[in-house]
Hints:
Blueprint: H1 6-9, H2 12-19, H3 45-61, H4 66-73, H5 77-85
Helix pairs in contact: 4-5
Amino acid sequence: xxxxxxxxxxxxxxxxxxxxxxxxxxxxxxxxxxxxxxxxxxxxxxxxxxxxxxxxxxxxxxxxxxxxxxxxxxxxxxxxxxxxxxxx
Length: 88
């Protein structure tokens, strides 16, 4: 989140109205409801984890053991188990 000067982006009338309630302070204006992006959508983390988990499930279905998958993907035994046995 970055700082933006209100007098640069807001119309003068709106700025004067806001100044009736608060002036000389920082104020946070949240995004409208329904416009918030879900976790990992901007950075690509969500897609990366989905691809990794799909690769883990595919390797397991082709005969790799959970121990082998732990070594290959640098994850714990329990993490691999959760991924392999999840219904996705």
